[in-house]
# Entry
Amino acid sequence: MAFTLATWNINSVRLRMPLVEQLIDERNPDIICLQETKCPDDLFPVNAFRKLGYEHIAIHGQKGYHGVATVARRPIEIVERRRFCEIEDSRHISVRFEADGRKIVLHNFYVPAGGDEPDPSINPKFRHKLDFVQEMNSVRADESDGAGSILVGDLNVAPLEHDVWSHKQLLNVVSHTPVETESFEAMRKQGAWADLMRLNVPAEQKIYTWWSYRAADWQASDRGRRLDHIWSSNNLVPAFTGYEILRAARGWERPSDHVPVIARFDL
# Structure
């Protein structure tokens, strides 16, 4: 059984619903995980998604900030809307679906960006980010009884040297500082998560999913970072058949600064 899954920080689902429709027209993923929806649950465009064939919708939103949503063509059930760091914001939702008789839990995350100053003693946003990643250590990949787990989202950390346009120049820039990257990779490994985007990609090959709005010409400067991730439990690695970073979406009208990443599985 084959299925595709897209993850995308949409930066306001209502504002950019036409871009979501364009993604569906061009790639038609079975499941879409959105982050930074910036929309309370009662205003989420449920009817628009259902008209597009996504009858199954799980949302965890709030007014003006954050927010995650998972929409699917196949049945899904909500497992949890987890609160992190004792803060009432909307940064996680997990659902369960069945594929070829196997129950799969899918986590959709929006990790805090962390502000501009990489010093937790003076920047509470950075402290929050570090604490959030630390708390993610409790989110483990599950392989019990033949189950499987997938974790996707805007995790706001570019962990590896070639996940950024310049390792040396970004060592003191939030998203690529050593304190972030080391705790992030330790958390991933402790949770027994496989980094699917780096499975068969040479270590020296650049991978980007985000390009800043600040660049006058994002495409020419190409100063990107890999902030969006797709992980799975190790027992799903053989079912992973590849992924696509839809770079062209960064050039769509009124784009998000992130682009969709589409993963393919065949169980």
Notes: The chain is about 15% helix and 30% strand. The chain has a mean pLDDT of 97. The first helix runs from residue 17 to 27. The two ends are 5 Å apart (CA to CA).
